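User: Predict the structure for this protein chain, please.
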Amino acid sequence: MSDDVFFDYYELLQLSPNADTETIERVSRHLAKKYHPDNKISADKDLFLKIVEAYRTLSSPETRTSYDLKHRDYWNQKWSVAAMATDSSTLGEDKDIREHLLSMLYVQRRSNMKNPGLGEIEMARLLDTPSELIEFHLWYLKSKGWVERLDTGHLAITALGVDEAEKRRHLLNPSRLIGLDGSAKNEGKKNA
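Assistant: Here is the predicted structure, written as structure tokens:
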């Protein structure tokens, strides 16, 4: 089992994590026969090797205990992701972070054309946001073409990013908002 990628042996064997050793052995043998490379009907060497690996891990009390800890952590993380996905405020907060990143990069380029970029760790600190979360938002901004990596390794806003930042600022400009009474704020100022 690789430390980088977790593989759910219980899912592979279609067993509950509470399955006893006898059940694990019985199911593993059945699946190993079915996917054995010599089986002319349903041979699958890669799947067979995974089943053997699962059996070796889950049939030994020591390796199973270690695996079960990783299994529990893996599923706790998955449940956390699922909970965050149902939390509607997460998407709004993410949008705010991206807008802040774009604004910071806009101001940095506008104020210092010779050094227009910022480092990822620097941006994470300025926003008081974990670096791992900043990576996601920077991936998005780069994919949209709004941010680019400079030769220095820093990130800087692109011309498309400037247009996007200005468009967003225009949409949120307080003078363009409608008041609670339905009247436009700053009515005295006709389309300037």
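Confidence is low (pLDDT under 50) at residues 176-180, 184-192.
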